[in-house]
Amino acid sequence: MSKIEMPHCEFCVQNFKSIFKSLSDDELESVNFEKSCRLYKKGDVIFHEGNRTSGFYCVSSGIIKVFKTGIEGKEQIIRFVKKGDILGYRSLISKEAACSTAKVIEETILCFIPSETLFQLVKSNIDFTMELMQRTAKELGESNKFLIDMAQKNVRERLASVLIMLAETFSLDDNKILQITLTREELANIVGTATESVIRLLSEFKHDELIDLKGRKIIIKNLDELEEISTMYL
């Protein structure tokens, strides 16, 4: 990890759906003063499952995967964190160790904000507190949906759901190319299946002209049909 020229919090407020959008100018300046920012390379681990942290992170740029480690070290990817998102705040609020591991998959600039700053904002700014509660509730809802999908959908339906989720989270460019690049193993770790199964199903989706593949890049050709496949169990 490397120190960088520190991005100002106002940049995130203006350009992303920042949790700090409700802060006063003085509060925003205080956060900007208290934070420290670093550049993380692909493969860097921000924190490990079981670690205790003394603050939380804001993502200025890049992509991070959040996962739990299962049997024989296999990853189960829970979610992705991108620019404008925050990371690691739940364990601070609950006063628990981190329940997952956060690892960089695309070069990332992170700003670390001490826990004291978070708790001071929670006490002094009700709009900030409500925003934090809403984000926590949204993450809980997404976790519940993930559990239902894992329990009730087959692998083909889960892969279709994952591709839709990635398209919604990271968007498509003008050529319908998914704006995140994942290995086949990482895709399998989201879907909750073997890498070989994902490779086979991607080939089937390509044959059915739902997607196209260019190396690790995935082109979404028929989002509506993927949506139908993902909801077959309903």
Mind explaining what this structure looks like?
The protein has 2 domains: 2-145, Sandwich (Jelly Rolls); 152-230, Winged helix-like DNA-binding domain superfamily/Winged helix DNA-binding domain (Arc Repressor Mutant, subunit A), CATH 1.10.10.10. The termini are far apart. The protein has helices spanning 9-15, 25-34, 89-94, 115-124, 126-152, 155-170, 184-191, 195-207, 223-230, and strands at residues 2-3, 36-40, 45-47, 55-69, 75-82, 86-87, 101-114, 211-214, 217-220. The strands form 2 sheets. Strands 1, 2, 3, 4, 5, 6 and 7 form a 7-stranded antiparallel sheet that branches. The chain has a two-stranded antiparallel ribbon with strand order 8-9. Helix 6 packs across helix 7 (184-191), helix 6 (155-170) packs across helix 9 and helix 7 crosses helix 8 (195-207). A hairpin with a 2-residue loop joins strand 8 (211-214) and strand 9. By secondary structure, it is an alpha+beta fold. Helices cover 45% and strands 24% of the residues. The chain contains 9 helices and 9 strands. The protein is elongated, with a radius of gyration of 19 Å. The model has no long low-confidence stretch (mean pLDDT 89).
